[in-house]
Design brief:
The structure holds two protein chains of two kinds. In chain A, about 20% of the residues lie in helices and about 40% in strands. The relative contact order of chain A is 0.22. Chain A is an alpha+beta fold. Chain A has a five-stranded antiparallel β-sheet with strand order 3-2-1-4-5. By secondary structure, chain B is α+β, with helices and mostly antiparallel strands. Chain B has two domains: about 110 residues, no CATH class; about 50 residues, SH3 type barrels (Roll). Chain B contains eight helices and five strands; from the N terminus they run ααααααααβββββ. The termini of chain B are close together. Classes of the chains: A alpha+beta, B alpha+beta.
Chain lengths: ~70, ~170
Amino acid sequence: MCLGIPGRVVRVDKEKRLALIDYSGERREVSTELVSVKPGDYVLVQARFVIQKIPRKEALEAIRVWEKSENK
Amino acid sequence: MGEEREQISAGISPERYFLMYAYPCIRNLQHQHKLSEEDAEILEKLLFGKKTLKRDYLESCFPNAFKRIRIVAAQMNKDYWDIEVLRKYWLEEHNKFIEAGDGDYATATPSFKELCKVHKAEVIGKKDNILSVKYDGIIRKVFATLVPDVKKGDKVSVHLAFAIEKLD
């Protein structure tokens, strides 16, 4: 599958249209130019842009599958 | 229909056509360690450059896509690098493989599957490099990087966060 893992929005800078995303501890700043988000949302990011919000349940499932495949 | 379709891809080699659709996946595959950073950079440069794209290199970078494309080619009784095969794969069959849970999609949740599909959308707005597109009642914003000349009212295909090509 060609999609990345979901991250959780930690905080949002509305003016700069940026969001800080947490990936199990690793944090990255991304643009919200395509999709607006709020803290707590789970999102998929591509090339430093949020491209989709993901329902929490699905996001946690995807993270679980991802961690499992990483530890293989 | 056949003739109109031909015009759209006029001047585009099958290799470039394939890579346009695979382009949005490159960085994601890299994050999943299925592509090296070096290959990701090479592929991005190749798409926007003028160098000839090597078939065996593309096949080695995207083995899963080509496994599926070979199946489609066999059904059509054509070579798997035939542009008609690639077009049918990306515009029709790709979504069916996802829906059927082929390969890694077996564990994908519904939102992932929808995003991975190729959607046929209408451009309803444009601002700089960002298009607003509409399909199935959904409005999304995607990048116009690969289709800089499209305008409001045009139909485009969408893969992940990118509009890929103008459709008739």
